[in-house]
């Protein structure tokens, strides 16, 4: 399979990588091949010490319409089919969440089912006006995957998360912004530009600081206060010993912009 027809594509331009969901004719619905491709891409990025920000976007008219329902409809053993799909896509989500880089979801069109779960699993999210969000799982008689049940209550609270998941009503981009599901609401056709601006700001910041902020925030729900204070102390001291912290201090007192290097 040529890269052009791969179900997910990775391109790297300097310190910014772009991961593209590449099944536009199927509205980027996840099938086993896409799940495996995403898992392998995020595993590759985890080893890349040059990339500092990752933009996740969908080709075609939508970000992602969810899982590939035709795949399940045609499966004689639906339990086995579910396992074959969920294992690699859950590995991909876990890898994405633990990447040292900051992942920015760039959203348009429909963001539904697994697509909404994947978008919520990213570190930051930008959507253009007109984007429609829907958890959608209840509409096909099933429950969330791809960390949707983990991310949604953390972003909006348990009561609102239950409403969104149980009723599966459409949410506009404006509603998603009000609920905290996205960080930026861009004008039509400007979501790529806004995502790139965020990525460039991340790249211009201290790599160690960005990585440690992400790690601390993501582990905070699993720690008690004492554990989190210890994690903060260790991260701060380790980062303070690096050259970028010294550069930031010198830049502050010299009233100039710091120049950060490395991961």
CATH superfamily of the largest domain: 2-enoyl-CoA Hydratase, Chain A, domain 1
Report the CATH topology name of the largest domain: 2-enoyl-CoA Hydratase, Chain A, domain 1
CATH architecture descriptor of the largest domain: Alpha-Beta Complex
Question: Which spans have pLDDT < 50 for at least 5 consecutive residues?
Answer: none
| CATH C-level class of the largest domain | Alpha Beta
State the distance separating the first and last CA atoms. Answer: 33 Å
Numbering strands along the chain, what is their spatial order in the largest sheet?
1-2-3-4-6-9
SSE pattern: EEHEHHEEHEEHHEHEHHHH
Strand content: 15-25%
Chain-averaged pLDDT? 95
Class of secondary structure makeup: alpha/beta
What is the helix fraction of residues, given as a range? 40-55%
Radius of gyration (Å): 19 Å
The number of distinct helices, counting runs of at least 4 residues, comes to 11
What does the oligomeric state look like here? single chain
Dominant shape: globular
Q: How can the largest sheet be summarized?
A: 6 strands, mixed
Give the number of domains: 2
Q: How many beta-strand elements?
A: 9
């Amino acid at each position: 399979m040529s890269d052009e027809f791969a179900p997910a594509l990775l391109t790297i331009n300097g310190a910014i990588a772009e991961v593209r969901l590449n099944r536009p004719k199927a509205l980027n619905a996840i099938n086993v091949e896409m799940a495996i491709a995403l898992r392998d891409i995020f595993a590759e990025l985890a080893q890349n010490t040059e990339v500092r920000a990752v933009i996740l976007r969908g080709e075609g008219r939508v970000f992602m319409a969810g899982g590939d329902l035709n795949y399940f409809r045609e499966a004689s053993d639906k339990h086995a089919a579910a396992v074959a799909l969920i294992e690699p896509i859950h590995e991909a989500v876990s890898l994405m969440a633990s990447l040292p880089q900051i992942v920015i979801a760039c959203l348009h069109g429909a963001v539904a089912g697994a697509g909404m779960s994947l978008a919520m699993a990213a570190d930051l999210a930008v959507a253009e006006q007109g984007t429609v969000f829907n958890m959608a799982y209840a509409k096909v008689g099933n429950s969330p995957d791809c960390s949707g049940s983990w991310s949604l209550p953390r972003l909006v609270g348990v009561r609102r998360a239950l409403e969104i998941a149980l009723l599966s009503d459409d949410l506009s981009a404006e509603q998603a912004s009000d609920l905290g599901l996205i960080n930026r609401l861009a004008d039509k056709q400007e979501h790529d530009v806004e995502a790139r601006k965020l990525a460039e700001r991340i790249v211009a910041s201290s790599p160690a600081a960005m990585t440690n902020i992400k790690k601390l925030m993501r582990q905070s729900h699993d720690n008690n206060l004492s554990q989190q204070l210890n994690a903060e102390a260790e991260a701060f001291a380790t980062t303070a010993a690096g050259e970028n912290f010294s550069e930031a201090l010198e830049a502050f007192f010299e009233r100039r912009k710091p120049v950060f290097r490395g991961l």
